[in-house]
Amino acid sequence: MSARVTPSRGEDGGGGGGVHLYSAPVRALIAGLLLCLAPACSHTEWRAQFGPTTGFTGGGQPGSFLKVHMVEGDLYVFDSWRVDPTVLHGRGRHLDELRSHVETGEFHVPLEQIALLETNEPHTVTNAGPIVLGIVTGASLIVSAVCLTTPKACFGSCPTFYTDDGSGPTLQAEGFSQSIARAFEATDVDTLEGARPRDGSLSVVMRNEALETHMVRHVNLLAAPRGEGRRVLRGGDRFFPTREILPPTACSTDAEDCLSLVSALDGQEHTTPTDGEDLAARQTIELVLPEASGDAGLVIAGRNSLVSTFLFYQMLAYLGRSAGEWLMALERSEAPLEGGAELAWQLARIDVEMRDADGAWQPVGHYEEVGPIARDRQVIPLPTDRPTGPIHVRLELTRGFWKLDELALALLDEPVPVVRIRPRAVRRRGDDDRRALRVLRDPQAQLVTYPGDAYTLIFDVPEGDHELFLESRGYYYEWMRAQWLEEENPRQAARFFFDTASVLRQLAPEYKRIEPEVERIFWQSRIGEAP
Question: How many C-beta neighbours within 10 Å does residue 389 have?
């Protein structure tokens, strides 16, 4: 119990068995699995019913609860509460870091000591200051029929970003889709393919269109000089001008021709259905690229299917009411994450190989992009000591996991430096939001957004011809759906973490059942309208 949390009318309770948290190495493995099973970032089917939180707000409707996760690891569970500018007042139970009962009574908790609030009445605390993990019920949302019947297909994302491409606001990017908790806070860079600055500035609309809490550390614009008649492609942390992008001469997978769907960046995507018996089943795509001398790279433009979203939601359903506890335990762990993360990325990456002069396949790189919403275009540099003649490349990937728009060969120039540009202004509901601007320009702060929030970021663009990229950093928490709690199953959750292969086989028929409609349901269930 924190020394600065003051109880009143406390009643000492009996000792009671606690929930045993996973050991640090076990939490590290689970953390790595979570990295892959993330969702990513039409008309409205879900609508958040949030009102402003001013002065004192309180919870206490029948069945309401508020879990107060403390920075130091202990937990308060309140069935009634109210918030003032600096303190959360509530009545309920206090549990220690091992979840043994400490006492029951009324408590006064300083907001600065709270790591996370978890509640089925999010409107009472979303503006209080601490980060909120909501439990979504019918009382807080108008739920569409499709999402009631298929709750693991409903829209989920990280922040989504829109720019004007000349025809109006267009979805261009989704930020840090893999960052499903503070432990996974990361920087994401996305290509702004169609962005068109006007009068020396670019407006980027950042939206929270899902049932999530987003913690945005920063959003910057990256400008890379193109040169006349060139584009710039990102390859990891390098930016390559390209003289020419050439389509493949052949593409085949599963004895089918895929050439027409991947020859141009045109929105026509190649995808294959999942394996009905195993969601981890792999497939191979073989490409023949034109002969080229000098520096060249394989261009891949694509996005995830909704397999990862489905798996992430299913895992949360199995965790049920312990999801918040698990996230907090994960974030307090100091164990390394490499082992589990590598296992997870096997599902969410494309392995690229090239045939050498002896006819053997040699690994040359990976395409790693998490998110089902916006495609991203990247280049994987190929070795310069290639055999003469057409270039043979193959891609090894998880069946049904990818939607590929373009596979091509790019002729590359030397990498160029980029200019990093912070926002000049931030607007919300048409007015300047100086607080949001100050937060996004402060590397130690984070902008917290809730379902339905939208901000317009204004960037000054350098003179000249530049390729533009969006750099975003942060993390988010997916809100729990009431329907998911009905599937709470600790045994299945444990299998998800420790026998993943069998769970992926077990869930394959369920995803196969919803696969024909999953994309339509997903896009129809965004919160708010496109800008």
Answer: 10
